Amino acid sequence: MYNAVMRTGADALLRDLRAVERGVEPARLRPIVGRSGRNVTQQHLREYDSKHPNRLKGRRTHFYAAAARATHFRELRDGVVIVVSKPGIFTRYNPGKTTIRPVNARRLAIPATARAHGRLPGEFNDLELFHFRRKDGSHGMGLRQRQQQRISYTRRGIKRGGKLSGKVFYWLVESVTQQGDPNVMPSEAKVGIHVTSDLTQHVNRILARRQGANK
Fold first, then answer.
1. What does the DSSP 8-state code read for residue 94?
2. 103-130 in b/e burial notation, b at 16+ Cβ within 10 A?
3. pLDDT digits 0-9 by tens, 55-66
4. Range of the domain at 166
5. Do 112 and 84 belong together in one domain?
């Protein structure tokens, strides 16, 4: 009787080990690792978005929240890759400096006011080009609102005042050098913690199912 019980227990243990072995085959682990890495990256980007409003305090574009929605994973033969398909994310993440130059245009339009943030110059119909000289003597360009006439209404009729100088909406530059921030993306340690936790839960679920089957 004792030997029979021992054999039965050993057989059950072997079946459990085989079940765990099948459950941790690379083909079964890759989607778990991919989903875990994708989820922690999305969460990190959403948190970064909430903590980093634009410096002009204008209408928010929620760039990093959009980057979170554009995050997915791909399974490879020997692993998993997390992909953030949001144009511009690399220049914001790149730990070094990235020089950005215009494409299909002569100059970049850099917002100078909150109203211009997240909008293109073509969305305004009252902007004009202006030139100026910097303190170092170099030449600069920008887009500002056209000069406006000050008008007031009195009992005698309309009274015209002086012209108001148009507010600068954009600075036009040939290029911009942007310093990236490696904190835009989660660290390897942070991703590793989440992936390890999800893999551990996966193995525990396999063992729990085996324990239920052995009862």
1. -
2. eeeeebbebbeeebbbbeeeeeeebeee
3. 777 778 899 999
4. 102-174
5. no
